[in-house]
Amino acid sequence: MNIWVIAEYKHNTLSKSTLELLSEAGRIAAKTQAKVSAVILGDNVKNLAETLSRYGAENIYVFENEALHYYQTNIYAEILSGLIKKHSPDVILIPATTHGKELAGILSPKVNSASLTDCISLSVRQDGKIEAVRPMYAGKVMATCVINSTPQIITVRPNILPLEEKQVSSSIINIEFSIPQNLNRKVLRLEAPEKETLEVTEAKIVVSGGRGLKEKENFKILEELAGTLNAAVGASRMAVDAGWMEHQFQVGQTGKVVSPDLYIACGISGAIQHLVGMTTSKCIVAINKDPDANIFKVADYGIVGDVFQLVPALTAELKKSLTANV
Fold first, then answer.
1. For residue 25, what is the domain's CATH number?
2. Which of 3, 33, 213, 251 could form a disulfide with 234 if both were Cys (CB 3.0 to 4.6 A apart)?
3. Is 189 part of any domain?
4. Runs of H (alpha helix) within 69-196
């Protein structure tokens, strides 16, 4: 069996979800004698091969071109489809990020296969096929699925799988590909946010706010709590639709799916569309003044009270505690 991991990176640093997938591929390889490879495309990315090797990638396929200084799905899909047809991997693992899920959907028909998205666990059947578990119907059902065609293209949620280093001797294989003129679109620039924020899908702690925050300015109390905990800030769809937070922070069915170690829901009622995006969190803390709020049904710890009193008080106590432990 040949398992490929499609690497993602930001600011010349591999994403944690990429390393999680390499770790999982290594565990599967230990049981099946599979060969683990990584594929990385971009501008000046060969220096990331050392980290890929440290997490078990035996073959590292590299394509470097300044046209990919910024991510472009159409070029990625074209390069990968040609590479897949040439080398015939059995399994392709991709992080279930915004880019990853889009790439899987475009790539699968190009290689005459199917894709499974947003999976939360992987196992190997007796026939050697990978079996994946994914939530369905807003998380009410856990479906065990398998793709019978080859390659099996599977995207896996970040923060689901444990990291495990496995240093191997790696071979770097340069990909030969000439970008067709019709695909070579030049991205002039990307507008960076005013301040750098943690990516909600990869953060270990997420602090989210909803309707109960009442207005945009009140998200400052969540930002202060998040800063104290080195956490990411998230938001419900209602908060995003109201213009209080940008869409990149939205957690839920039409936003991002998160699986942090700790999810703190502040002033979020718990509509099913939001629960879809966060119920796989390892620990959920809910703060809401309505004791009948739906969010308490999925919370490990629930606090009934005023978010404007409780969040600042929690932040103050955490600052005291963290300062005392320094």
1. 3.40.50.620
2. 251
3. no
4. 73-87, 98-110
The pTM assigned to this predicted structure is 0.85
Are 168 and 19 members of one domain? yes
Q: Which two tokens stand for residue 68?
A: 């990919």
Q: Flag the least confident range among 99-103, 236-240, 251-255, 293-297.
A: 251-255
Mean pLDDT of 314-325: 86
For 259-304, the pLDDT digits (tens) are 999 999 999 999 999 999 999 899 999 999 999 999 999 999 999 9
- For residue 321, name the pLDDT band (cuts at 50, 70, 90): confident
Is the domain of 12 the same as that of 93?
yes
Number of C-beta neighbours around residue 171 at 10 A: 13
Q: Whole domain around residue 164: which residue ranges?
A: 2-174
How many domains, in total, are found in the chain? 2
Whether residue 123 is contained in a domain is answered as: yes
Lowest mean pLDDT among 15-19, 45-49, 321-325: 321-325
34-88 tens-digit pLDDT: 999 999 999 999 999 999 999 999 999 999 998 888 888 999 999 999 999 999 9
- Among all chains, which residue has been given the structure tokens 């990625």? 76
- One domain, residues 168 and 31: yes
DSSP 8-state assignment for residue 163: P
One domain for residues 219 and 131: no
Query: Which residue shows structure tokens 């099913």?
Result: 272
Instruction: Tell me whether residue 315 is in a domain.
Output: yes
Mean model confidence pLDDT for the chain = 92
Look up tokens 């490879």; give the residue. Answer: 37
Residue type (1 letter), 86: K
- Find the largest Cα–Cα distance for the chain: 60
Whether 94 and 219 share a structural domain: no
- Under 8 Å CB-to-CB from 207, ≥6 apart: which residues? 222, 225, 226, 229, 231, 232, 233, 234, 264, 266
The H or E element spanning position 50 is: helix 49-54
Conformation bin of residue 324: beta by default, left when phi > 0, alpha when psi is -120 to 50: alpha
Residue of 272, 276, 260, 264 lying closest to 302 (CA atoms): 264
